[in-house]
Design brief:
The complex is a heterodimer of chains A (about 260) and B (about 280). Chain A has about 260 residues and is mainly α. In chain A, about 75% of the residues lie in helices and about 0% in strands. Chain B is an alpha/beta fold and about 280 residues long. Chain B has one domain: P-loop containing nucleotide triphosphate hydrolases (Rossmann fold), CATH 3.40.50. The chains are: A mainly alpha (about 260), B alpha/beta (about 280). At the A-B interface, helix 1, helix 4 and helix 10 of A face helix 2, strand 6 and helix 3 of B.
Chain lengths: ~260, ~280
């Protein structure tokens, strides 16, 4: 156990060194969420000041954007940290070391969390200062939303990392594109009831749907839906299990295919 | 030919067996022959789609030996080494290291092994010190700082220690990569062309360090190389591969004698053309 923690710490240190080595990388982590927040923040201000029927939805819109970014950036943080190993042709070194798949996954999760905090926290504070929108007013609900979205992002990141190991660079674009498939189905900007009846079960099978429904309940009704969060957490446990199993299976498949040694630029 | 027959390696379709292993007579005097081999490769085969990259390879490497795995491009050396490392799963047969099957039990022995290859890079954005720290911790090295100090001295890394690895010269990168390969004092060291891209002087320097390590530690080394002078200098025993199969094995001097050649270079060329 101690050895495992040591190896997770070693890998996290390795990724931290990379992050620290370039201020441009650090800037990039904050840059995209900040730009996104500015666009939606101004729209929020416009709608809020318009006194129209749309004014009540302005907060929902900005809240949804910020939480969607947690999911999106969490997955990108996980996947791009992993891709560093492929780009630097270091995967064989790691696979030859005593590092186990769950330890590699653990360090990627930690790093995704660190990148997320670096990217999201300043943006949340900036939203409060510039637009007066306080996401922290959601209280403990925000922690539940954040936790569930991060868990989902890791499950997706594990599958993408496995696909990159198995398929090579061809799967790299999934890091960006896969989340777009989820966007309409997770009901980020509208309630599940807005979907056709036949699509609603699909939406409820996706964990982010529970978070965004939960967020709307907090912002519109002032109630925290514990039931939704517990269901979401249970579903996330299943998805994380599936994600890790898929990652290990694809890694094993790559060992059969013989791609681990030659993978990289 | 049935589907099963198509999948099976050739040895099951013919009566010819190429079970070649170093004989007892080849063992260094200092080693008891009762010792389990450091590396045992048994009927090792790897098939990629329709192509047999490695086809019925058999050899053992007793503990404390340095064995060279030779062959032209595409001979199957890298695939064989990759299967010994557990990075590639054999289609048939097995590769054992220190008594463990590398396809199923690699985690039991990985902390006692290490490898170096010019085709696998160390993270280029980390400094040399950071890389050694990270890999030292991955291998669970007990007194890491002291070990890194030893390596700095042995490999003259003091001047590059805080430089970014990706910006080092080819020779400096090789020194760092070999230092990383020795960080855990491995019992079994796999080297894939350890002096490729080095000038003769640096190559000689790296070889001297490997010899010193091997003598100090009594480690087992399996190396692939195209440099026959290097092989003659380092190796107790040589396995020559061609088209995925072992075509000759023996001590470097014996091989030259057997094939009536002046040196290993000539043996290599002769076998490459004949095979």
């Amino acid at each position: 156990m101690t050895q495992s923690l040591n190896r997770i710490a070693a890998m996290t240190a390795r990724y931290y060194y990379i992050l620290r080595s370039s201020w441009l990388r650090l800037l990039e982590i904050v840059y995209w969420p900040a730009m996104q927040m500015l666009v939606w923040g101004f729209l929020y201000t416009y709608l809020y000041d318009s006194k129209s029927a749309m004014a009540s939805t302005a907060g929902l819109l900005l809240g949804a954007v910020l939480l969607w970014d947690v999911l999106f950036r969490g997955q990108l943080g996980f996947t791009f940290t992993f891709l560093e190993e492929i780009w630097s042709r270091n995967l064989a070194n790691l696979m030859m070391s005593p590092l186990q798949p769950f330890e590699l996954a653990g360090s990627l999760m930690l790093m995704s969390l660190i990148r997320l905090v670096i990217g999201t926290l300043p943006v949340l504070l900036l939203t409060l200062v510039l637009f007066g929108f306080n996401l922290f007013a959601m209280g403990p609900g925000l922690v539940a939303f954040f936790l569930n979205l991060v868990l989902t992002s890791w499950a997706i990141g594990l599958v993408i990392a496995g696909l990159v190991i198995r398929q090579g660079f061809g799967a790299e674009s999934l890091a960006y594109s896969i989340m777009i498939v989820l966007l309409p189905l997770c009901c980020v900007y509208y309630p599940v009831a807005a979907l056709p009846l036949w699509l609603q079960p699909v939406a409820w099978s996706l964990t982010p749907t529970y978070v965004f429904e939960g967020m709307r309940a907090v912002l519109l009704d002032g109630t925290f839906r514990t039931d939704l969060m517990i269901e979401c957490l249970a579903l996330n446990a299943v998805y994380l299990g599936i994600g890790f199993t898929t990652f290990v299976a694809l890694l094993q498949s790559a060992r059969h295919k013989g791609g681990l040694l030659t993978m990289g630029e | 030919m049935s589907r099963i027959e198509r999948f099976l390696p050739r040895r099951h379709l013919t009566s010819v067996s190429t079970n070649i292993v170093p004989s007892e007579g080849n063992a260094p005097a200092s080693l008891g022959t009762a010792d389990a081999p450091a590396i045992a490769v048994e009927d090792l085969c790897k098939k990629y789609r329709t192509h047999w990259a490695v086809d019925e390879v058999n050899f053992i490497v007793p503990k404390g030996w340095t064995v060279g795995l030779l062959g032209g491009n595409g001979a199957g050396k890298t695939t064989t080494i990759a299967m010994i490392m557990g990075l590639v799963v054999p289609s048939f047969g097995r590769a054992m290291v220190l008594g463990h099957d590398m396809a199923t039990e690699r985690h039991k022995v990985l902390s006692r092994m290490n490898f170096e290859s010019p085709y696998v890079a160390l993270p280029g954005r980390l400094t040399v010190r950071q890389n050694l720290m990270v890999f030292g911790r991955l291998y669970g090295v007990a007194d890491l700082k002291a070990r890194i100090e030893e390596l700095i001295e042995d490999f003259e890394l003091g001047d590059v220690l805080d430089r970014v690895t990706g910006r080092l010269s080819a020779g400096q990168k090789t020194r760092v990569a070999v230092a990383k390969a020795l960080i855990n004092d491995p019992d079994v060291l796999l080297l894939d062309e350890p002096t490729a891209s080095l000038d003769p002087d640096r190559a000689e320097w790296v070889r001297s360090r490997l010899v010193a390590y091997q003598k100090r530690r009594g480690a087992t080394i399996l190396l692939s190389s195209h440099n026959m002078t290097e092989v003659e200098q380092l190796c107790d025993f040589v396995v020559i591969m061609s088209h995925g199969r072992v075509v000759a094995m023996g001590r470097p001097g014996e091989l030259a004698e057997r094939f009536k050649c002046r040196d290993l270079d000539e043996v290599f060329i002769y076998l490459a053309r004949v095979a």
